[in-house]
Design brief:
Elements: H1 3-29, H2 52-69, E1 71-80, E2 88-98, E3 101-108, E4 122-128, E5 131-135, H3 138-142, E6 149-153, H4 154-163, H5 169-177, H6 187-195, E7 201-208, E8 211-221, H7 222-228, H8 237-249, E9 254-262, E10 267-276, E11 279-288, E12 304-306, H9 307-316
Parallel strand pairs: 6-12
Antiparallel strand pairs: 1-2, 1-11, 2-3, 3-4, 4-5, 5-6, 7-8, 8-9, 9-10, 10-11
Helix pairs in contact: 1-5, 1-9, 2-6, 4-5
Length: about 325
């Protein structure tokens, strides 16, 4: 396969991989240290408008129950500003587990073809621990001796990110591993962040997909998010400084989070908007079947192509991915 073909493969898997990285990295960036108290059950009859203290108690119950569930079926939509890498819309559906981290999702949408118009209109992504597999499609398999799955070890990519810092493969590694240092997180961590919002508000009852829910919302600036996130305190000073600088350089201004919680104190819907200079990045997730089996089966080795090997080949050719 020539340089151009390898570059196309790298670009083809970058968008779905970066989308997964953003979803998981979002939870990592939002990771709090909220301690669950009580029995994980909110008041049976919620008032029309809860006080901030009562809203915090209700979200604490949701935090505990979501943490204990460890998995759920998920549908989500992601919208990124046009003109940015991976810009456009994307839909994802499948199952996600967060203790341990596993994921099996199918993606579709205009963002998949943003950098490569010949890319498939849908793609499947499997994740087991810190190893991700992206289905490149039948056409790509014709160029790779039948190996249609790209394997990406995010640990190896993070190491590459540290070593490189140059144009080409290292930059792609940075794009796909940014914010994943604390990746083994779960939707409960997003609830934890919402609980830290200084303007947390109980909006009121609402029906979502036929379910009775309570609607909450709040915002955090980048500084407030960093101050609230005790996970950052566990990082070495050098790593923490670099991560904060990267987030500031990205232009991220803050988060707006909306959450709908059902009578079982479990999230039914979550709507997170990240404000950036290029425009808003919005991720809307709906959850169901908490505790659903979240076992994944990795593709056979003979059916996979290692992304690290591809990057090394491209760097050896002097070509940026």
């Amino acid at each position: 396969m020539g340089t151009m073909g390898k570059q196309n493969l790298a670009r083809r898997v970058a968008v779905p991989a970066a989308a997964v990285a953003m979803v998981l990295g979002l939870a990592a960036c939002e990771g709090g240290d909220s301690e669950s108290k009580g029995d994980g059950k909110a008041a049976d009859s919620a008032p029309k408008a809860m006080s901030r203290a009562d809203a915090g108690k209700a979200l604490n119950a949701a935090y505990k129950n979501t943490s204990e569930a460890k998995s759920a079926k998920v549908k989500m939509t992601m919208s990124m500003p046009e003109g940015t890498p991976g810009g456009g819309d994307m839909e994802m559906s499948g199952v996600m587990g967060w203790d341990p981290t596993v994921l099996d999702m199918t993606m579709s949408g205009s963002a998949l073809q943003e950098s490569d118009p010949t890319a498939p209109t849908s793609s499947r992504v499997i994740m087991d621990g810190d190893v991700m597999y992206v289905d490149m499609g039948a056409e790509a398999a014709k160029e790779t001796d039948g190996r249609r799955w790209m394997k990406m070890d995010l640990g190896d990519l993070a190491e590459q990110m540290e070593k490189s810092g140059e144009a080409g493969g290292g930059e792609m590694a940075k794009a796909m591993t940014g914010g994943l240092e604390n990746m083994n997180q779960d939707p409960a961590q997003q609830i934890a962040l919402l609980m830290e919002s200084p303007n947390l508000k109980h909006v009121g009852p609402a029906k979502v997909g036929g379910e009775e829910t309570q609607h909450y919302k709040g915002t955090l600036s980048l500084k407030e998010m960093l101050d609230a996130n005790t996970a950052f305190d566990t990082l070495p000073e050098k790593d923490r400084k670099e991560l904060v600088e990267a987030m500031e350089t990205s232009g991220l201004e803050g988060y707006q989070t909306q959450l709908w919680v059902n009578d079982d104190d479990l999230p039914v819907k979550m709507d997170v908007t990240m404000e950036t200079p290029e425009g808003d990045v919005r991720i809307v997730q709906t959850f169901s079947d908490y505790g659903a089996a979240a076992k994944v089966e990795a593709p056979a080795e003979k059916d996979t192509l290692d992304f690290m090997d591809l990057l090394k080949e491209l760097e050896g050719m002097g070509a940026g991915a």
